[in-house]
Write a structure and sequence with these properties.
Length: about 375
């Protein structure tokens, strides 16, 4: 296993900067997720680590070795792609064994590694089948098995679950997390799905337009996003953002959105002094807006009466699409809510978990 280190890495395609001055350490045995929208540079970053793209500037280390000029086959990495790239004319056993045969491993060692990987992935009974006889989830397991038998220093995974249906993706997320715990290997995993990032990774790297926006543990990024982009990208449904002004009255701090205002906890926002009487972006997650009916002791200074435009039952909860004056937002409330389309309803803003962002820089106000 090995540490991977990107040192001021930049990748340009002509005049387009796909990855911009990225410095990042992936620790030995870490499961690191690169996440962001299409075109943010995450797959390009992975391909540079793999050696499939040349580095324009900077260095990439695997272990203590700079690998910029080392070909992919000599980097001791294994990749799992979005499309499974299995050989249709070979059965599962030979698909998994093929890379080892090219490297002239002894037949006994190949057999041992293939059967061990098949046991880990639960596909021992599929070894004689051709890819066309497998489901999508089974094909993905074979692709993983082909990587596992290599016993590489680093696994690189480029959106490996995106071709699976929703139920199978959930199952395979858990399988991959268990696989990492069992193999204790370094994994760099690319996805555009923030749910995958939150549930699987030891740490998340959020990217946008080629820049690294924030690096941290999933809950650290969820609870303390560095800017509006990260706050809106991580979490589902996305965080609500409302234009507001910070007021101080009788020593208390308030968020004034004109059509409503709520009180802020002073301990959470001790450093907002320079933003008093200035416009900010007020951020609050849907799960931090509650139905007043289920918060009987809610402070009056956190209660907002909103018009309910749409109710969206989700089974265990209900999403309320609400409006107050010019502001629209989503609340994620108890499934027993009595809120109905076209009615007004009292909601409670949990400002202990609210966020404030600078209107110009869009950076978090800590």
């Amino acid at each position: 296993m090995a540490r991977v280190y990107l040192e001021h890495v930049t990748k340009k395609f002509g005049n387009v900067v796909a990855v911009n001055d990225a410095t990042l350490e992936i620790k030995d045995k870490e499961f690191l997720i690169l996440v962001g929208p299409s075109g943010c540079g995450k797959s390009t970053t992975l391909r540079m680590v793999a050696g499939l793209e040349e580095v324009t500037e900077g260095n990439i280390y695997i272990g203590d070795t700079i690998v910029n000029d080392i070909p992919p086959k000599d980097r001791d990495i294994a990749m799992v792609f979005q499309n499974y790239a299995l050989y249709p004319h070979m059965d599962v056993y030979n698909n998994m064994a093929f890379g080892l045969k090219l490297r002239r491993f002894p037949r006994a060692e190949i057999d041992k590694r293939v059967k061990e990987a098949a046991a880990i992935l639960g596909i021992e009974n599929l070894l004689k089948r051709k890819p066309k006889e497998l489901s999508g989830g089974q094909r993905q397991r074979v692709a993983l098995g082909r990587a596992i038998v290599r016993e590489p220093k680093v696994f690189l995974m480029d959106e490996p679950l995106s071709n699976l249906d929703a139920k199978l993706r959930v199952q395979m997320r858990a399988e991959l997390a268990k696989l990492h715990n069992r193999l204790q290997t370094t994994i760099i995993y690319v996805t555009h799905d923030q749910t995958e990032a939150m549930t699987m990774g030891d740490r998340i790297v959020v990217m946008k337009d080629g820049f690294i926006q924030q690096v941290g543990a999933p809950m650290e990024i969820y609870d303390h996003p560095d800017n509006v982009f990260v706050a809106g990208f991580i979490g589902s449904p996305a965080m609500n953002f409302l234009d507001a002004v910070i007021l101080r009255e009788d020593g208390d701090l308030w968020v004034d959105a004109k059509s409503f205002r709520v009180k802020l906890p002073p301990t959470r926002f001790e450093t907002v002094g320079e933003y008093i009487d200035k416009e900010v972006i007020f951020g609050i997650r849907p799960e931090d807006i509650d139905d007043k009916d289920f918060v009987p002791n809610a402070p009056p200074d956190r209660i907002v009466t909103a018009d309910i435009d749409v109710t969206e039952p989700m089974g265990s909860e209900v999403y309320l699409y609400a409006t107050v004056g010019p502001h629209s937002f989503i609340a994620r409330v108890d499934a027993r809510t009595t809120a109905r389309d076209g009615s007004s309803h009292q909601l409670v803003f949990n400002t202990d978990k609210a966020h404030l962002f600078d209107k110009k820089t869009q950076k978090a106000i800590r």
